[in-house]
Amino acid sequence: MSMRKTFLALLLAASVTPAFAQEKTFELKLSHWVPASHPLQKALEDWGAAVEKESGGTIKYKVYPAQQLGKAFDHYDMARDGIADVTYINPGYQPGRFPIISAGELPFLMSDAKGGSMALDAWYRKYAEKEMKDVKFCLAFIHSPSSFHSRTKKITVPDDIKGMKIRPAHATMANFVTQLGGTNVQSSAPEVRDIIERGVADAVTFPWGSLVLFGIDKVTKYHMDAPLYVTTFAFVMNKDKYNQMSDRQKKAIDDNCNTEAAGRVGEPWGKFEDAGIDKVKAEEGHEVYKLTPDQTALWKKASEPLIKTWAEGVRKTGADPDAAMAELRAALTKYNALAQ
Predict the structure, then answer these.
(1) Which tens digits make up the pLDDT trace of 68-114?
(2) Three-state DSSP class for 140?
(3) Residues 134, 239: contact at Cβ < 8 Å?
(4) Please, which residues have CB within 8 angstroms of residue 3's CB and are 6 or more apart in sequence?
(5) Which residue from 60, 175, 246, 326 has the highest number of Cβ atoms inside 10 Å of its Cβ?
(6) What number of CA atoms fall less than 13 Å from residue 132's CA on the CB side?
(7) What is the C-alpha separation between 284 and 303, in angstroms, rounded?
(8) CA pair distance 167, 182, nearest whole angstrom
(9) What are phi and psi of 37, to 5 degrees?
(10) What residue spans of the chain are helical by DSSP H?
């Protein structure tokens, strides 16, 4: 290096250092509740690495999988209370608490994980300010469209649910099961295999790749291949932790808490789930079946009351459900993810 270049480098370092020196270093605890073998683990690691890089190494991170810091159902409150700094939540695990985002759970609405994630995120941001005000909302995303997997019988029409015990993915699916004369069995994802094996539940709504990952394919036999529903998720952050950060650090967080970042989380997980269909088809003793147009029409008709229930919940928050649904559909159309 020439003398002049060295001198310039020193000057540059001197001009940069004082600003950095005032910055505190943070180690963020990123918490989730699925096994470390799940694609979400890598999604959170990638998120943390991007933030670390952009913060000039002043924001470090550690991912805590598999409910190490707390139960699946508690992850929103864990971020609010600072038990973890960034958490992965399923808003539908707590019925009635986040009524607006549950639009994303309505049947036959979304067709694609990446586009659906970006659309959900872009649409929900303004509502999150009110609905998730105890935390800093980071991003929202979905898993691939999915449906019923049953141990006892083939489910092709809504009437088939009558008398069945089903573990629903979230509050909207739970309402659907009840409305169709079935009984709900609540459990978080890691417990599903056990409750089906023990006969506590006959069927589950679950995405395909995770079905295999959690071993639920070992205890189910009949699989409906239809975009019946998706589950909405979010990353949320402790507000105090964010507020303690410098402007540059906040920017590192904000640049990874946006609609593009939502797509980066949704896409690889979507591919993982979609690949599960072929895995299940390749296994012996499994029946994977599509719905006929007539059967699909019956499911859509049966799901209409869910839209009404959702709208009532939204009205209670003071928001306008018709406007919200129109905006969500427009966002899904924009990102090519509206189910046909």
Answers:
(1) 999 999 999 999 999 999 999 999 889 899 999 999 999 999 999 99
(2) strand
(3) yes
(4) none
(5) 175
(6) 32
(7) 32
(8) 10
(9) -80, -10
(10) 3-21, 39-54, 75-81, 113-131, 171-179, 192-197, 208-213, 239-243, 247-254, 259-282, 293-302, 304-316, 321-334
